[in-house]
Each structure stands twice: as structure tokens, then as C-alpha cells.
Automatic annotation (TrEMBL):
Region (Disordered): 380-407
Coiled-coil ranges per UniProt: none
Keywords assigned: ATP-binding, DNA-binding, Nucleotide-binding, Phosphoprotein, Transcription, Transcription regulation
PTM sites of type 4-aspartylphosphate: D60
Name under which the protein is recorded: Two-component response regulator CbrB
Domain of life: Bacteria
Alphabetical GO biological process terms: phosphorelay signal transduction system; regulation of DNA-templated transcription
GO MF assignments: ATP binding; DNA binding
Residue ranges annotated for the Response regulatory domain, each copy included: 12-121
Keyword Phosphoprotein attached: yes
Record InterPro entries: AAA+_ATPase, AAA_lid_NorR, CheY-like_superfamily, P-loop_NTPase, Sig_transdc_resp-reg_receiver, Sigma_54_int, Sigma_54_int_dom_ATP-bd_1, Sigma_54_int_dom_ATP-bd_2
Domain Sigma-54 factor interaction: 139-368
Length: 463
């Protein structure tokens, strides 16, 4: 893998991506960090913009019907940073071998994108790392349970041991793996992330360990596996509880002896890989039922990092929501949106079974659907039959002055709305009222219901 570094400050970046939403979000993010960005939705459109004149090209590997790796040749000598999803990790490995400077995986993580772009371009990097001291970049939250997690990361990262990260889905296990890699001596080598649940069981062994030509039907050429691709670096195996038993046996050999044997090969190769595994399942009880090898479990569990579910992070929820909301506002070019008091109460009262990912999605929905400056409970679209939480909604933590201000704004806006409607509804139609308030008729109707001021039926005017 060749790493291209340049010392001049980054100025122009070309994004080649056929998905409009991703392209737009990436452009907005990079422009916020003072990069000049142009975009193309296809190889042809990219070529027309003379990619070789840019300072960096960021290209999706799976352009609709086109092979993104072609951008490497089209852009030379400009460095190319490739984007991929879990399904096309194989292509990413090939692209890295062919000279891509690095690879970022989808769904894109804002902090990772900014840090990677800064690193591969040699530019000074993000203007500020939003993370407070001691909090790994990209992670939000400072409650006591998360402080323990950060301390574990800080102590474990340099130790070069295998780590087992446990937590419910969406609690940030992959973020922990990234932080461990970044803070380790392997930081400059590749981090290969594989979601074992996303690869079909029949393919997973050859994906991980590679195969020789003719090893099985369809194996037309020899292939390097992802374990070998991580040589010198870190391999993150998410959802390791889904790994079939045969693959578990091969993985055990890698951990015990550093040995790897491609499928269909008699030759043993040696790799130097640090393994980080994650699961939301109880591996010990899986091993009792014979689904997970106990010896592998013990090998994996040298260090354990447990992530708390979001519902147990009371002190953090609103702080996380605030930062995720700012990010969503930036992605959708809706600056300044805030959560209404009722929305904040609902966020605190909800059990968040999908954890931070679910909160991220709800806020994204809120930003897209909000009509005024505030996001209301309906915009968040939380399931109506809320799973109850131990903490009642009234237990909202003390407000910072910022929260206090937005609470007052919220109240005064609702007061203003109510006042305006009551004062003018006799003279104005619903359409006129909605226009004056800058909201849709539907939104006016919904707010009337919520505030208990439904429109009274007007007596029909006689001609
Ligand atoms: N502490 C956190 N701070 C900021 N973002 C977070 C945090 N935890 C999770 N996220 C965000 O939530 C989403 C899910 O995170 P991640 O993929 O790391 O979770 P996971 O536990 O690996 O989930 P799964 O097991 O379903 O793969 C990501 O978009 C991530 O950025």
C-alpha cells in the first residue's frame, strides 16, 4: 500500500459519488472545514473536471454501474481516498494495493472523514477537535460510565493486546475500535473493519483468510484475505458471535500462532495483527450452547470494554443530542434548529433500544421534518408506545444557561403562537394564519391540537 503525503495545505477536493445525499453531506462537511470542494456523480463528470488538477479526490468504489477504482488512473498523480461500505471491503483492499491513500467506510463518520482528509493531505486538520480533553475524537459523552470507557481505551490502546468490546447495537463499539487503533503504535498501519454478520456464512472464511486459485467452485484466482490485509495493523471483527465454527478455528490459529493458511493452500503465512472483537451477544452463554468456542472466547477476552446503553447515560443524552443535532443541521443546511422543550422531554423519557444510532436517526428525521426553528416531538417520530424508563421524564437534569435560554425561547415561541392565533383567527383564514406564522397548514393544525386551541367551526356566511 502506498501512502501519498504532501506538505502543502489542502485547497481543492473533488468528490466522486453517485448518491446525491452522501455527496452533498460530504461537500457541506468539508466546506465547513475550509476546503474548496467540487463534485461529480460519475466517472465521466469527474473526468470533465480534470481530476489530476485537484489536491485530493474522494471517490466511492461502487458508482452506479462503474468501477470507482478507475479514478486511481484517471486522477494520477492526485491522491485518491476511497469510500466503501462493508459489502465492498474486498474492493477497498484492492484499491489500497493499487495506490489509494486510504479508505473510509460508510456510513461516514464526520470526525473520521475530517481527520483522514487532513492526514492524507498533510493539511493542518480540523480547526478544532470538538472532543473535550480525555474524550477520544469522534466520541461524545462525559457521564461516569463513559469516563471509565475512555480510561480503559487510554490504558489498553498502547498495550497491543486483544480487546473484546461489548455493548448493545448502536452504543459505539466501532468508535471504540477506531479510538484503540488511533491511540496504538499501529495507528499508521491499516485498520480493517469487518462486520461478520454482514458477510454470508459461505463466504466469510475466504473473505477473512483468502483462498488459492481453484480452492472451490468459482475461485478463479488466488485472493488475499482481510486478515492478511490488516498485517501490521488492526483487524476489527464486529458481531464476532456470528462467526461460523470453522472460521473460529482458523481465527484461533491466528491469535495463538500468528499463522494463517488460505483456503486450499498448504502453505502457512505469518501475520502480525491486533484483533479487536465486538459483540452484543453473551459469548459465554453462546459457548455453553456450543455456538462459540470457549478457547477462542478466552483468547479474545484479554481486555474487555463494556459500553453502557444510552438509557443508562442520563447525564449524557441531551448533550449527545445537542452535538448530533448540530451535525445533522450542517448536513442538511438547516442551521440553528433546536429541540423544543417537549422534544427534549420525550428524548429523556424514551428507552432508546437502538442507542446512539437511533438517536442520530431520530434527530436527522427531526431536522428534515421541522418547519420552524424548533423540532417538536412529532418531527422526531419516536414510537408512540414508549418503553418506560426508570427515570421519569420530569428528571431532566439541571439546565445549562444555554438550555435555559432555549427553554425560554421555546416557551415564548409557543406563547407567541397561541397569542397570535387567538388574536387573529377571527379575521384570518387558516391559510393566511399559517402564512403569517411561516408554517404549513398541516403544522398549524397539529399545533392547535397540541396546544388545545382547535379551530372552531365558523358559521357559514350567507351570500
Ligand atoms: N459515544 C458516541 N459518540 C458519538 N457518536 C456515537 C457514540 N456512540 C455511537 N455513536 C454513533 O452511533 C452510530 C453507531 O455507532 P457504532 O457503529 O460504533 O455502534 P456499534 O455498537 O458498533 O453498533 P452495531 O453493533 O450495530 O454495529 C454511529 O453513527 C456512531 O457515530
Amino acid at each position: 500500500m502506498s501512502i501519498h503525503m504532501t506538505t502543502r495545505p489542502m485547497s481543492r477536493i473533488l468528490i466522486v459519488e453517485n448518491e446525491d445525499a452522501t455527496r452533498h453531506a460530504l461537500k457541506t462537511l468539508l466546506e465547513r472545514h475550509a476546503y474548496r470542494v467540487e463534485e461529480a456523480a460519475s466517472l465521466d463528470a469527474a473526468q470533465a473536471l480534470a481530476p489530476q488538477t485537484f489536491d485530493l479526490v474522494i471517490c466511492d468504489l461502487r458508482l452506479a454501474g462503474e468501477d470507482g477504482t478507475q479514478m486511481l488512473a484517471l486522477s494520477a498523480p492526485t491522491p485518491v481516498l476511497v469510500m466503501t461500505d462493508h459489502a465492498s471491503l474486498r474492493k477497498a483492499v484492492v484499491a489500497l494495493k493499487e495506490g489509494a491513500v486510504d479508505c473510509i467506510t460508510k456510513p461516514l463518520d464526520d470526525d473520521e472523514v475530517v481527520t483522514t482528509v487532513a492526514r492524507v493531505s498533510g493539511s493542518p486538520g480540523p480547526a478544532r477537535d470538538a472532543s473535550p480533553p480525555g474524550v477520544p475524537s469522534g466520541m461524545i459523552g462525559e457521564c461516569a460510565a463513559m469516563q471509565c470507557v475512555y480510561e480503559r481505551i487510554r490504558k489498553t490502546a498502547p498495550a497491543d493486546v486483544t480487546v473484546l468490546v461489548q455493548g448493545e447495537s448502536g452504543t459505539g463499539k466501532e468508535l471504540v475500535a477506531r479510538a484503540l487503533h488511533r491511540q496504538s503504535r499501529r495507528a499508521k498501519a491499516p485498520l480493517i473493519c469487518v462486520n461478520c454478520a454482514a458477510i454470508p456464512e459461505t463466504l466469510i472464511e475466504s473473505e477473512l483468510f483468502g483462498h488459492e486459485k481453484g480452492a472451490f467452485t468459482g475461485a478463479n484466482s488466488a485472493r488475499t484475505g482481510l486478515v492478511e490485509a490488516a498485517d501490521g495493523g488492526t483487524l476489527f471483527l464486529d458481531e464476532i458471535g456470528e462467526l461460523p465454527l470453522d472460521a473460529q478455528a482458523r481465527l484461533l490459529r491466528v491469535l495463538q500462532e500468528g499463522e494463517i493458511r488460505r483456503i486450499g493452500s498448504v502453505e502457512t503465512r505469518y501475520v502480525d495483527v491486533r484483533l479487536i472483537a465486538a459483540t452484543h451477544r453473551d459469548l459465554q452463554s453462546l459457548s455453553r450452547s456450543g455456538e462459540f468456542r470457549l478457547d477462542l472466547y478466552y483468547r479474545l477476552n484479554v481486555m474487555q470494554i463494556d459500553l453502557p446503553p444510552l438509557r443508562e447515560r442520563d447525564d449524557d443524552i441531551l448533550a449527545i443530542a445537542k452535538i448530533l443535532l448540530e451535525r445533522a443541521c450542517a448536513r442538511h443546511a438547516r442551521p440553528g434548529l433546536r429541540l423544543s422543550r417537549a422534544a427534549r422531554r420525550d428524548i429523556l423519557g424514551y428507552a432508546w433500544p437502538g442507542n446512539v444510532r437511533e438517536l442520530e436517526n431520530a434527530l436527522e428525521r427531526g431536522v428534515i421534518l421541522a418547519e420552524g426553528h424548533l423540532i417538536h416531538p412529532d418531527d422526531l417520530g419516536l414510537p408512540s408506545e414508549r418503553a418506560s424508563r426508570a427515570t421519569p421524564p420530569s428528571a431532566e437534569p439541571p439546565h445549562s444557561s444555554d438550555d435555559e435560554a432555549s427553554l425560554d425561547d421555546d416557551l415564548s415561541l409557543e406563547d407567541y403562537f397561541q397569542h397570535f392565533v387567538l388574536e387573529h383567527q377571527a379575521q384570518m383564514s387558516e391559510t393566511e394564519l399559517a402564512q403569517k406564522l411561516g408554517i404549513s397548514r398541516k403544522c398549524l393544525w397539529e399545533r392547535r391540537q397540541r396546544l388545545g386551541i382547535p379551530r372552531k367551526k365558523q358559521p357559514r356566511r350567507m351570500a
